[in-house]
Specification:
This protein has about 170 residues and is of the alpha/beta class. It has a single domain, classed as Rossmann fold. The protein is about 35% helix and about 15% strand. The chain contains five helices and six strands, in the order βαβαβαββαβα.
């Protein structure tokens, strides 16, 4: 089995690429402790026009992932070809999921994809500090809660945001 130490990022590649690119800039230039697979860098697929070929590559990336971050934009809840599939794979693998709201919301809202609405997922706003906090703390919390049979969405309190300078 592969060593799982990566973060898998799922997002709407047509509409929310700028947020993903900002996260890659944080990683490269701001000491942001992200280590993730680029789910949209599909050039290693033999035939990137074929859905199954793309999904095969994405499955390989999941094999090294310890958590999934989904960037939730205006259209994310409607994406059924890849984002829904990515969320379903993450849930099936028991990966912790962090829902990052691109509209500033700090908790689950109506933009949330139906696939994760009733799941044990933590939601944050799109900000370097809170995303990093969630990536550091949510996996252990998720495993503790899921072992106890806990379900449903979670979010960080205003106090946590304040402590992070937000």
């Amino acid at each position: 089995m592969a060593y799982r130490n990566k973060t898998y990022i799922a997002f709407d590649g047509d509409n929310d690429m700028r947020y993903y690119r900002l996260m890659t800039a944080w990683k490269a230039h701001d000491g942001f402790s992200l280590n993730f697979h680029n789910a949209h860098d599909l050039n290693t697929a033999r035939d990137s026009s074929q859905e199954e070929s793309i999904k095969r590559q994405l499955r390989e990336r999941f094999a090294n992932s310890k958590l999934l971050v989904v960037l939730i934009g205006e259209s994310t809840r409607y994406l059924t070809k890849f984002v829904k599939w990515e969320l379903e794979v993450a849930l099936r693998l028991g990966l912790p999921v962090i829902g990052v709201n691109l509209n500033g919301s700090r908790q689950m809202d109506d933009r949330c994809p139906p696939t994760i609405r009733d799941q044990l997922v933590v939601y944050t706003s799109f900000n370097h500090n809170i995303i990093e906090h969630a990536m550091e703390h949510w996996p252990d919390e998720f495993h503790r809660l899921s072992s106890a049979g806990t379900t449903g969405n979670r979010h960080y309190t205003d106090d946590v945001y304040r402590q992070l300078g937000l």
